[in-house]
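Form 7-S
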Amino acid sequence: MQKRNVYTLSLMTAGLMAFAAVTPARAQNTVTNVRVISMRSPAGVIAPDTKYAGLAETNVSVGIETPGVPCGNCVRQAGTPNVGLPWPVFAVGSGTPLTVSTWFESTSYTGPCTAGIILKQGATVVAAGTYPFPGGCQAGYVYGVFFNLPAPSTTGFTTVIGTISGGANKSGGDTFINVQ
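Output:
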Protein backbone atom coordinates (compact mmCIF):
# COMPACT_ATOMS: atom_id res chain seq x y z
CA MET A 1 0.00 0.00 0.00
CA GLN A 2 2.76 2.43 0.91
CA LYS A 3 4.56 1.69 -2.37
CA ARG A 4 1.37 2.56 -4.32
CA ASN A 5 0.95 5.81 -2.38
CA VAL A 6 4.54 6.85 -3.15
CA TYR A 7 4.01 6.04 -6.86
CA THR A 8 0.74 8.00 -6.94
CA LEU A 9 2.36 10.94 -5.15
CA SER A 10 5.26 10.98 -7.62
CA LEU A 11 2.84 10.98 -10.59
CA MET A 12 0.81 13.78 -9.00
CA THR A 13 3.94 15.81 -8.25
CA ALA A 14 5.21 15.44 -11.84
CA GLY A 15 1.79 16.43 -13.12
CA LEU A 16 1.65 19.49 -10.89
CA MET A 17 5.04 20.62 -12.18
CA ALA A 18 3.90 20.12 -15.77
CA PHE A 19 0.54 21.79 -15.04
CA ALA A 20 2.25 24.81 -13.48
CA ALA A 21 4.30 25.31 -16.65
CA VAL A 22 1.20 25.86 -18.83
CA THR A 23 -0.46 29.22 -18.80
CA PRO A 24 -4.25 29.22 -19.23
CA ALA A 25 -4.05 31.58 -22.22
CA ARG A 26 -1.98 29.03 -24.17
CA ALA A 27 -4.14 26.00 -23.32
CA GLN A 28 -7.02 26.53 -25.75
CA ASN A 29 -9.92 24.08 -25.81
CA THR A 30 -9.21 21.92 -28.87
CA VAL A 31 -11.03 18.77 -27.67
CA THR A 32 -14.78 18.43 -28.07
CA ASN A 33 -15.61 14.72 -27.54
CA VAL A 34 -15.69 14.06 -23.76
CA ARG A 35 -17.26 11.25 -21.67
CA VAL A 36 -17.47 10.87 -17.89
CA ILE A 37 -17.80 8.02 -15.37
CA SER A 38 -18.35 8.53 -11.66
CA MET A 39 -18.61 5.90 -8.95
CA ARG A 40 -18.64 5.78 -5.20
CA SER A 41 -15.13 5.54 -3.78
CA PRO A 42 -14.46 2.33 -1.88
CA ALA A 43 -12.91 4.50 0.84
CA GLY A 44 -15.97 6.75 1.03
CA VAL A 45 -15.64 10.26 2.46
CA ILE A 46 -12.42 10.61 4.43
CA ALA A 47 -10.64 13.40 6.27
CA PRO A 48 -9.27 16.04 3.89
CA ASP A 49 -5.75 15.67 2.60
CA THR A 50 -4.05 18.89 3.67
CA LYS A 51 -1.91 19.10 0.52
CA TYR A 52 -4.70 18.50 -2.03
CA ALA A 53 -7.70 19.56 0.10
CA GLY A 54 -9.50 16.33 -0.67
CA LEU A 55 -9.37 16.62 -4.50
CA ALA A 56 -6.48 14.86 -6.27
CA GLU A 57 -5.60 13.71 -9.80
CA THR A 58 -4.62 10.05 -9.56
CA ASN A 59 -3.99 8.66 -13.05
CA VAL A 60 -3.56 9.64 -16.71
CA SER A 61 -3.35 7.11 -19.54
CA VAL A 62 -3.45 7.21 -23.35
CA GLY A 63 -4.85 4.42 -25.52
CA ILE A 64 -6.12 3.89 -29.05
CA GLU A 65 -9.81 4.86 -29.20
CA THR A 66 -11.70 1.58 -28.73
CA PRO A 67 -15.49 1.00 -28.93
CA GLY A 68 -17.09 0.11 -25.59
CA VAL A 69 -14.34 1.46 -23.37
CA PRO A 70 -13.82 3.25 -21.07
CA CYS A 71 -16.59 1.70 -18.99
CA GLY A 72 -17.33 1.41 -15.28
CA ASN A 73 -17.72 -1.90 -13.43
CA CYS A 74 -17.38 -3.78 -16.72
CA VAL A 75 -14.28 -5.94 -16.13
CA ARG A 76 -15.46 -9.45 -15.30
CA GLN A 77 -14.06 -11.08 -12.15
CA ALA A 78 -12.27 -7.86 -11.15
CA GLY A 79 -14.39 -6.93 -8.14
CA THR A 80 -15.98 -3.51 -7.82
CA PRO A 81 -15.40 -0.74 -8.42
CA ASN A 82 -13.43 -1.39 -11.59
CA VAL A 83 -12.82 0.36 -14.90
CA GLY A 84 -12.21 -0.94 -18.41
CA LEU A 85 -9.77 1.27 -20.35
CA PRO A 86 -8.22 1.15 -23.82
CA TRP A 87 -4.87 -0.63 -23.75
CA PRO A 88 -2.21 2.01 -22.90
CA VAL A 89 0.15 2.96 -25.73
CA PHE A 90 3.38 4.91 -25.69
CA ALA A 91 4.10 5.25 -29.41
CA VAL A 92 1.41 6.32 -31.89
CA GLY A 93 1.18 7.49 -35.46
CA SER A 94 0.29 11.10 -36.20
CA GLY A 95 -3.50 11.49 -36.43
CA THR A 96 -4.30 8.16 -34.69
CA PRO A 97 -7.65 8.39 -32.81
CA LEU A 98 -6.80 8.37 -29.08
CA THR A 99 -8.62 8.27 -25.77
CA VAL A 100 -6.91 10.17 -22.96
CA SER A 101 -8.25 8.86 -19.64
CA THR A 102 -7.82 11.10 -16.63
CA TRP A 103 -8.90 9.97 -13.16
CA PHE A 104 -9.28 11.83 -9.91
CA GLU A 105 -10.77 11.29 -6.49
CA SER A 106 -12.76 13.68 -4.38
CA THR A 107 -12.15 12.30 -0.92
CA SER A 108 -13.65 15.19 1.02
CA TYR A 109 -14.19 18.06 -1.46
CA THR A 110 -17.69 19.01 -2.62
CA GLY A 111 -18.09 21.92 -4.98
CA PRO A 112 -17.44 23.16 -8.51
CA CYS A 113 -14.72 21.31 -10.41
CA THR A 114 -13.21 21.12 -13.88
CA ALA A 115 -11.16 18.29 -15.37
CA GLY A 116 -8.75 18.95 -18.21
CA ILE A 117 -6.00 17.64 -20.44
CA ILE A 118 -3.02 19.34 -22.03
CA LEU A 119 -0.74 17.80 -24.67
CA LYS A 120 2.64 19.52 -24.96
CA GLN A 121 5.61 19.03 -27.24
CA GLY A 122 8.41 20.91 -25.52
CA ALA A 123 6.90 24.26 -24.52
CA THR A 124 4.23 24.15 -27.27
CA VAL A 125 0.66 23.15 -26.37
CA VAL A 126 -0.55 21.00 -29.29
CA ALA A 127 -3.98 20.10 -27.85
CA ALA A 128 -6.02 20.90 -24.77
CA GLY A 129 -9.51 20.39 -23.43
CA THR A 130 -11.59 20.92 -20.32
CA TYR A 131 -14.77 19.49 -18.88
CA PRO A 132 -16.55 21.57 -16.22
CA PHE A 133 -18.81 19.26 -14.19
CA PRO A 134 -22.36 20.65 -14.43
CA GLY A 135 -23.22 19.61 -10.85
CA GLY A 136 -19.71 19.89 -9.45
CA CYS A 137 -17.81 17.14 -7.64
CA GLN A 138 -19.07 15.23 -4.61
CA ALA A 139 -17.01 14.02 -1.67
CA GLY A 140 -16.54 10.26 -1.61
CA TYR A 141 -16.51 9.75 -5.41
CA VAL A 142 -13.98 8.67 -8.02
CA TYR A 143 -14.30 10.31 -11.46
CA GLY A 144 -12.98 9.35 -14.86
CA VAL A 145 -13.02 11.85 -17.70
CA PHE A 146 -12.21 10.61 -21.20
CA PHE A 147 -11.15 12.92 -23.98
CA ASN A 148 -11.20 11.52 -27.55
CA LEU A 149 -8.91 13.30 -29.98
CA PRO A 150 -6.46 12.54 -32.79
CA ALA A 151 -2.76 12.26 -31.97
CA PRO A 152 -0.99 15.55 -32.77
CA SER A 153 -0.03 16.11 -36.41
CA THR A 154 3.48 17.13 -35.35
CA THR A 155 5.79 14.27 -34.40
CA GLY A 156 7.92 13.91 -31.31
CA PHE A 157 7.89 13.29 -27.59
CA THR A 158 4.57 14.52 -26.16
CA THR A 159 3.70 15.10 -22.50
CA VAL A 160 0.05 14.33 -21.70
CA ILE A 161 -1.16 16.12 -18.56
CA GLY A 162 -4.42 15.45 -16.73
CA THR A 163 -5.69 18.14 -14.40
CA ILE A 164 -8.44 18.71 -11.86
CA SER A 165 -9.33 21.99 -10.25
CA GLY A 166 -12.05 22.93 -7.82
CA GLY A 167 -12.24 26.07 -5.72
CA ALA A 168 -8.62 26.89 -4.84
CA ASN A 169 -7.58 23.23 -5.30
CA LYS A 170 -5.44 22.15 -8.26
CA SER A 171 -3.86 18.79 -8.95
CA GLY A 172 -2.30 17.10 -11.96
CA GLY A 173 -0.75 13.90 -13.24
CA ASP A 174 1.05 13.10 -16.45
CA THR A 175 2.20 10.46 -18.88
CA PHE A 176 4.04 10.52 -22.19
CA ILE A 177 3.61 9.37 -25.78
CA ASN A 178 5.92 9.46 -28.77
CA VAL A 179 4.08 10.66 -31.88
CA GLN A 180 5.69 9.12 -34.96
